[in-house]
Structures are given as structure tokens and as C-alpha cells.
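Wait, can you check?
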Amino acid sequence: MNNNIVVSSRIRLARNFKGSKFSAKIDQDEAYKIVDDIKAVIEENETTSKLGFELTYLQDISEIEQNILVEQHIISPQLIKNKNQAAYMINKDKNIIIMINEEDHLRIQVLNSGLGLEDGLKTANMIDDVLEESLDYAYDKTLGYITSCPTNLGTGLRASTMLHLPALSITNQLEKILLSISEIGVAVRGVYGEGTKSMGNLYQISNQGTLGASEETLVERIKQISLQLVKKENTVRRVLLKYSKIFLENEVYRAYGILKNARMIDTYEAMKLLSVVKLGVETEMLENINNVDELMTKIQDNNISMLLEEEPEQKSKEIKRAEILREEL
């Protein structure tokens, strides 16, 4: 039952270049020089050139497209805030993203499905090594990599997992557990990272600081905490199935019924109900429903707005979202 509790894993490395001001203080010419330097190294290196990276300047795409990329976890909200000087490179498999002129000059991000932190770290370090061979990073022997935010000093590493924890939420155990985790130096955030709230019982777990610990230690810590949460979630699921099956069936089929029949629905309610449907699929109460994770992304506001632009008739987002849910389910 734990196949989909860990929805995804992310490794992110933050770097800056020696002799350059932080991203918040540079002008567009300086920013685009940084873009050009990174692009040149990636395209000229034998290994990274084969990964099919494409460069996009944020100024060249619409606001809706920018926000869709955030909803897909490809770029961060901070990159959009710096859109006049920001760019990103993404490989053909769309799991390696190099964000340029975000909070830091460079952020290497690797996304994997499931609990793939070690593989993500290996890939991120490979990209990092390629860039560091040719570009001069800001580095201090005591402090490690110099970053815009002091919490990233040291390795500059953020290791995170996205966890789906509906059973713990339904039984009102989640808040206490997440509070205890936050007290031991682990950050608990919403779907889109810092400053965002949870939707659909999805929570991002990540290390809070990087100074004084190795990359491997930080990754192992997040992995073990994630596995503990998976264990707790699975335990509660088994208890519900054994002792409160009718309650769980009621929650699942009510959620499914609303999603199958609603004519208008907002994002928050849809995500909450899809979370319960996902639980129903994973506990084998519901069959023949695939890709609930993809559907959670598809019904986000900006994706809906993009679809509405392609249709001649005027509809609200709530109506269009309900249409998509009925069709998909």
C-alpha cells in the first residue's frame, strides 16, 4: 500500500558565482551573462549535451504558462518573481531543471517519482560537477557554498519528498505528527513549497538547514523521516480497513460520487476529494481509475485557464474543472 504514499522526491542544489552580486542586486545584462555562461557549459560538455536541455527565458512565455510550470513543480514561484532576468533549462525527460537567477544564480533541481533521493543526488552532483569545472563558484572553506539565504549555507542542498497522507489526516493525527517533525529541524510545507498550504493531503518534507552536515547525511535523514511517515500512514490505513471499513468506504464513495457528478467545483474541494479517491484506489476499494496524481495537476487553476483560452464558449473555471473530472473518472 505504500507505492504511492511517497509521490515524488526532489534534490536541489543552490549555487552562486564568485565576483557577482546576488540575483536580487544584478541588472539584466549581468543576469543574461550568467545565463549564457551556464548554457555554454551544459551544451559543450559531452555528458550534459546528450541530455537534450532546452533553454527558456521567462520573459518569452505568458504568465499562465509560467504558473503552469509552478503547478507542475518544474520551476519555483521565486523564479517568476525574477522573471525579467530569469531563465531555466530542462532536459528532454523533464526531470532535471536548472533554474537561473532565482534567489541564487543557479539552482539545480532533480525530480524523481517515489523515494528516489539517492538517484536524484547522484544526478544533481553530476550536473554540479560539470558546471563547477568551468565556472567559479562562491565558496568558503568554513561556510561552504555561499548562498543568498543563510539557511542554505554549507552544502546548499535541499532534499525533499512529497507525501500523500490522507489516513492520518482523516483520523486527525497528522497535525501533531507534523508539529513534532518541525521541532527537530525538518521543514513541512505545502504542495508548492515555502509559504504554501497543503492541498489534497500532500505535504513536502525537507531539511531545514545544510551547514555542518554532508549531503549524504541530509538525504538519509529525509529518507528515514519519510519512511517513518509512510509506516504511520500504512498502519492507520490497515486499522481503518480492519475496524472502520464502513467509515472508510463511506468517505471514499462519497468523494467519488461528488467528483463524478459535480457541475461546479473549486480547486481546494476537488483536491480534497481526489485525495480520498486516491486512498480508495490504493486500498483497492476503487478499480479502473488511473493517474490520480496527473489529474491533481490537470485541475489546477492555471491549467484550467489555458484550456479555457482554447474554447470559444465562456465557462467558469469551476465548470470546466467539473467537466474534466467527470470525463477522467
Q: What stands out?
A: The mean pLDDT is 93. The longest strand covers residues 6-15. Residues 136 and 155 are 16 Å apart (CA to CA). The radius of gyration is 21 Å.
